Amino acid sequence: MRMPDPRDPRNHRKRRTGRRRAAGKDNPLRRPADRLRVFVNVLLIVVLIIGLPLAGWAAGSFTYDHYQGITHSRNVGKHQVTAHLTANASHLVPGAVPGGAVGSAPVTWTDGSGTHTGRTVVIEGQKKGSSIRIWVDRSDRITLPPENSTVGLITGVTAGIVAASTTAVLVSGARVGFNRSLDRRLDAQWDKEWAQVEPKWSHRSDR
Fold first, then answer.
1. CB-based contacts of 158: which residues, under 8 Å, 6+ apart?
2. Alpha helical stretches, state H, the chain
3. Whole-angstrom distance, CA of residue 111 vs CA of residue 81
4. 83 has a pLDDT exceeding 90
5. How far apart, in whole angstroms, are the C-alpha atoms of residue 69 and residue 163?
6. Lowest mean pLDDT among 19-28, 33-42, 60-69, 70-79
7. Among 63, 93, 124, 207, who pairs with 103 as Cys (CB 3.0-4.6 Å)?
8. What are the tens digits of pLDDT across the range 154-190?
9. DSSP 206
10. How far apart are CA 67 and CA 160, in angstroms?
């Protein structure tokens, strides 16, 4: 009898076809529950592949746009003016900034709406009459410099990572829960069928 040549590619194709048939729907041992398990697991994998980046992008974009809107509303009307100290800077916080301790001083400035006064943070040691640049809002009150988009970007990225991670956990939990539920149902079905078959198989029913 002639043995099949293992180098013959036709024999490899036959073996692969046989394995696919054994694992496919032609396999008589393949139960409907097995097909259901494969279908649900594949479906959850597809949901994970599509949903994970989609959830991350949606959450990140929404959070970033939200913070951008807040930042824009806070920055509206802010502008710089040149102010002059009306007194020497007083001691406030030693060594808080490079180059000297932090102090505060009363200042005055003039713009299109008139002359204004306020108090701002300066470098300690600055003398009366020194000029500095300060930020004021549209109500001519001294305010902080405009906020940038860094906080919104960091918050958006964080929200995207959290959303993607949550999606992965939920899908993985659904997969584990489904498989455990299916296993319990199959075990119960097996026990029921075994209770019917075992007496005949062990010949206890003939006694």
1. 63
2. 9-23, 32-75, 150-201
3. 8
4. yes
5. 21
6. 19-28
7. 124
8. 889 999 999 999 999 998 888 888 888 888 887 777 7
9. G
10. 14
Per-residue pLDDT tens over the stretch 111-138: 888 899 988 888 877 888 889 999 998 8
**Residue type, position 88, single letter:** N
Tokens of 122: 């300066």
4 — pLDDT class (breaks 50, 70, 90): very low
DSSP string, 132-173: EEEEE-TTS-B-PPPP-SHHHHHHHHHHHHHHHHHHHHHHHH
Q: Contact 152/68 with Cβ under 8 angstroms?
A: yes
Cβ(89)–Cβ(104) below 8 Å: yes
> Looking at the chain, how many residues does it have?
207
How far, in Å, CA of 125 to CA of 186, rounded? 83
Backbone angles phi, psi at 142, to 5 degrees: -65, 135
Q: For the purposes of burial, counting CB atoms within 10 Å of the CB of 152, is it exposed (0-12), middle (13-18) or buried (19 or more)?
A: buried
